[in-house]
Design brief:
homodimer; alpha/beta; Rossmann fold; D-amino Acid Aminotransferase, Chain A, domain 1; seven-stranded mixed beta sheet; 36% helix; flat
């Protein structure tokens, strides 16, 4: 049901309205009154008037069915008020009270459950509880008890959506200082009924919002977030996110004060990448990204030209941009020559450009340098380092340059003396800090240059066999067979149960070969001596067979037999697996395996679905990719085949989603170019299928 | 010679003094006049007066021998003025003019050389050229043409030392905004005669300076910097450094506008670590570090307790501190229990602490929580997140708490509304940004907790043989022998020249063995097939001998024979080497070799000397250290022995400093614990010894 009655109500009743303007039940009355909101009905059984307005004893006394009730009473009394408002036909409510799931205590948890059940039963949209309320600047509708949002603030096109009331006020103030104006400011509270992604989805459709900046602690529903984010991308609206919990300590602190599922930090990263959101590395970057979006139509990417009156500042900006992931491309020769002709002496002209003190001597000098820096196609942004006096002196020239280009001009004044309003009026960007500027430009430009991030799931006609409910894992042979049906190339093996069969099969497989015990009960076989490599003849194969069977019998595990398979020579071993994140669903991991994955953490993650192009990007994103790319004279590995195999693995997992818990291929042996890649081993863990309860992040 | 006449002159002549206050020759006259500086002599051949002061036609007319001449004339006229001032006995000069080495043109380079020669001949201390001049706030002496530094600014104990005039003004303004006050502000310019480290050395002895914040592009003389930095450490004075050039692009931009040697970025990192400087990761952090040093006596380290009225802010600060390298240790149980008793409901009390809204209800609540948070010995700093109104309300309680503790209290107000002056008066720290606060606290606390960073060189009685001047490399056998003399354990080998000797020696060495061709002309033998592993018997040894000899003959290189040595089984291979940085001298590198070093960049660097304790820290600092520490059930490697071997290698290089270009041991095989570590191969490259020109970073 629509969030319009909640976020853009035409009429509001405040239950628990207070005559004292600073009290929780007084603030919204005061704000709405001052904003000239007309259909405002304070409810207070003990008072005839509230802040000069006629007060109503009970919600039932209000002469119309309001769009929204603000419930500013204690947690104990809230549900009763909601029931009564619902009985009247009120479609939306906002609950301020704390004392719900955020307490992590039995009573609070039960109270929240009751609230959830109420909302589900009635269809009423209930915001909060434990929410600070919202401010709709477009409509000048203030439903918050926060003091940071005041009538009369200019409205704009940025929405602020946070899971913390305090961060709402903090980011709002930061962004206002940069001149950003807002459409909506929303604090989600406990999200018992209306969750983060519901708001996001509403904002994606809101014509007054072209950008949302978000503070996120934990998402309840990953797929819903991805869907709302996709609407933002499709509409060309900026979605910028700061997610707390990047460190173990931060994650721990977050979990302990939210009542949400703890998703994996890597899964959040993968989800944000898939959603094409702009990431804020620190809180202040949210404000900076919203600010840059006000210049957004001019910023095509993060390739920067730097014109600086200080060689030092040029170098500092080059460092800051490079480290933040933006580029400072060298200018083409003709541009460098033209700049060299402009600038006296042999100054640096390749980019960054050292303008030298000459800037104060000539009127046209700067405009000509800007014109030249704007010329190359691969330049998205021209950064001008002109502090204090230098900026004042040349502002007119910059304004003229800005008027004649579609690219962005951004000024850095480290003396923090610029006339912000005048720069804003001319559409010229402004920062006073090198590193904040660089981080914001890099993140924003990267977002802007991002193509379509949508990947369609591959429809496959193959399917997984149905496994009995009591099975928790497949044998290696079963696992490889199942994956092979989905196009994952595997090393085929011969399964034998007797020494005689072992001898015969060994001859057929050829030497050297690998023998492995097959048992659904043993996951890590190497450690138990249940894998033998480099078996050179039939006698050795029989001996290995007998030893492993004896060992397995002593472990008292189910024994399906022993597989014999060719031992492949050469190639590079990689690891690929799919795990299920509680928030976002299936996440694919690719790495070089062993030490590289465990110690060097050199892995790439993506949410499914992933196609072969995406899988190849993951491989190429590994620090150790060179190992696949002809390291030290080795032949190049068949990266394309590996990517196809990885994508096929992902498709297989999606097709078996309701039966699978985790699938890992380790190693996937990537042979030299043209020779393919094969799954040498496969681990398939099953989950009990609970129909209807499985989520997919597709 | 002392820099006192330059930085604290009692009398000054300004050559090229201008009547116009804003001109380069007018600014210092204006500033000094307004500062009430008495012995000021403007020199101007065309004017009777300058800015109301009696002017002198020539320096010879000045009625006293001044301490300092400021030379504000063009580069062409400068040297003549210096000669004349020197003839009068003036001990110091400051040269504003550009047009020297910074142009990177023949004329400018020659001009700088002449200036250097003049200063060396006369002993005059000449600052600049291409310098903006200095401000001595303690003495209110302004020798700068920069407008950022004005008489009447309060003086303090921070010195600002930069290699860029513009960054001087920028950092000064940033730090002033935070309330930092200065003793000296110094811009070094081209450092033709007085270089960065000369200033640093002077400031180390300056009683009015307890902290120097520095902007560095390139250092000319690494050992001099290290010596000055050691004086800072010994005096307990903070030395904080921002070094530009962390990215390739930034380094390139820096090189192109300085005339200094390009040291390796890793060598700078190693030097700063050795010097025990506090690193500023971004320019603004210089201001923040200077600011924290004003609270410095209270900050013992970077272990933080967080008290926050917002759970979100607690989590954000935990993230920011952890990512910056600070700790947020869990409180002991008794402190958690006591906090739990204070805070209504089940709030988070382990650290961070969520104070909840209760803070507005009780007077003693916050002081009690602060008292508890200060209790654990491992807490250095208590961070209080109290924005806007919450801070105003509780400031008195915080002031009281600050008065009764020696630890630091730092307030974060993300609404940026705090009364900075009142907080400063109470010795309470203040930041308005989470991440800036965290970075600064982490860097400052780490600096403060740092022990003695001095390592003495080990005196060794061993020495290198004298090699003929035409040799550029030692054979592996020679290299290992030479290193063995310094205590580096090596695999001893048998050198043979005939097949018969090879057969005999192989029997003595034992099997399996490794055979290697010995030639000073082939550095990377594996690639040429000149190393054979796993030789299992005497016949194979002879065959390998003959094949390698034939191959070497076909390559037409000098052949010293073939070595046979035992092939050691087990152990972990690491790489260690020493290279010479043009600025800082000998730098030791330790890594796991091969892919880990080349692709994963998992290496540690230190400047020599390094003792065994330092070498072990390097090994433990590797991401891949677990490979040495019993990875996946392997035996632990003899890390202590490896550390001793690495330290011995460093000592060997220092002892042979004037003959060596580079030494590498790869691999150093680290055997299981108790079994030692041995150099399997050694590469020793020689340089032509030029006596007197070799620098050592000892």
């Amino acid at each position: 049901m629509s969030l319009t009655p909640l976020l853009s109500p035409r009429s509001i009743a405040v239950i628990g309205a207070s005559d004292t303007k600073s009290r929780i039940g007084g603030v919204p009355v005061d704000l709405l009154k001052r904003a000239g909101f007309e259909k405002l009905y304070p409810i207070n059984p003990k008072s005839e008037t509230v802040q000069g307005l006629a007060a109503y004893k009970y919600i039932e006394d209000v002469p119309e069915v309001v769009d929204l009730v603000i419930v500013a009473v204690s947690a104990e009394g809230t549900l009763d008020q909601l029931e009564r408002a619902h009985a009247l036909g009120v479609p939306a409510a906002l609950v301020y009270a704390s004392g719900y799931a955020e307490t992590n205590e039995v009573e609070g948890l039960a109270r929240q459950e009751a609230l959830v059940a109420f909302a589900e039963r009635t269809g009423m949209r209930v915001a909060g509880p434990n929410a600070m309320g919202n401010a709709n600047f477009t409509g000048q509708i203030f439903t918050t008890f926060g003091q940071a949002f005041q009538p009369g603030e200019p409205s704009g096109n940025t929405a602020l959506l946070t899971q913390s009331g305090n961060m709402c006020a903090t980011v709002f103030r930061m962004a206002r200082r940069a001149g950003v104006t807002f459409s909506h400011v929303i604090n989600t509270g406990n999200e018992a009924n209306v969750d983060f992604s519901d708001y996001l989805d509403h904002l994606a459709d809101d014509p007054d919002t072209n950008c949302a900046v978000c503070y996120i602690e934990e998402l309840r529903d990953g797929p819903k977030f991805l869907a709302a984010a996709a609407k933002f991308r499709a509409a060309g609206k900026l979605l910028a996110v700061y997610k707390v919990g990047a460190s173990e300590k931060g994650a721990e602190a977050t979990r302990s004060h939210t009542a949400a599922l703890a998703g994996d930090s890597a899964a959040y990263d993968a989800a944000f990448a898939k959603a094409g959101v702009a990431r804020a590395g620190e809180l202040s970057a949210l404000a900076d990204l919203a600010y840059l979006h006000t210049l957004g139509e001019h910023i095509g990417g993060s390739n920067c030209a730097i014109l600086s009156i200080s060689g030092a500042a040029g170098a500092i900006l080059s460092d800051a941009l490079s480290l933040a992931g933006a580029e400072v491309p060298n200018f083409p020769d003709e541009v460098q020559k033209a700049l060299d002709a402009q600038i006296p002496g042999h100054s640096m002209v390749s980019n960054p450009v050292d303008l030298t003190g000459n800037i104060v001597n000539s009127n046209d000098f700067l405009s000509e340098c800007i014109r030249l820096a704007l010329q190359p196609d691969d330049i998205d942004v021209v950064l001008l380092y002109l502090p204090g006096y230098f900026l004042t002196q040349s502002l007119e020239q910059i304004e003229k340059a800005a008027a004649t280009t579609n690219k962005a001009l951004i000024v850095i004044d480290s003396y923090a003396q610029a006339d912000q309003a005048r720069l804003a009026a001319a559409g010229i960007g402004y920062f006073d800090d090198f590193d904040r500027a660089a981080r914001a430009i890099a993140a924003y430009g990267k977002w802007k240059a991002l193509g379509d991030t949508h990947v369609s799931a591959t429809v496959t006609t193959a399917s997984w066999p149905a496994f009995p409910a009591n099975r928790t894992a497949l044998s290696e042979t079963e696992g490889k067979e199942a994956l092979a049906a989905f196009g994952v190339p595997v090393v085929h093996d011969a399964l034998v149960q007797t020494a005689a069969d072992a001898r015969k099969a060994a001859g057929e497989v050829g030497f050297p070969l690998v023998a492995k015990l097959v048992s659904p009960d043993v996951a890590h076989k190497t450690e138990h001596g249940l894998i033998r490599l480099s078996i050179k003849d039939a006698d050795a194969a029989v001996e290995a067979f007998e030893q492993m069977m004896a060992k397995a019998r002593s472990m008292n595990v189910q024994i399906d037999g022993v597989t014999l398979e060719p031992m492949l020579q050469g190639g590079v071993e990689i690891l690929t697996g799919v795990t299920r994140d509680p928030v976002f669903g299936w996440m694919l991991t690719v790495g070089l395996g062993g030490i590289f994955t465990e110690l060097m953490k050199d892995v790439q993650h993506r949410l499914l679905p992933v196609d072969a192009t995406g899988a190849e990007r993951m491989l190429r994103g590994l620090k150790g990719f060179k190992l696949l790319d002809g390291y030290r004279g080795a032949p190049k590995a068949d990266v394309a085949a590996a990517a196809r195999a990885i994508a096929a693995l992902g498709n297989a997992v999606l097709a078996g989603s309701d039966q699978l818990r985790e699938v890992e291929v380790n190693p996937l042996l990537v042979l030299p170019e043209g020779k393919g890649a094969v799954a040498v081993d496969a681990l398939v863990l099953l989950t009990e299928a609970v129909p209807g309860k499985v989520e997919e992040a597709v």
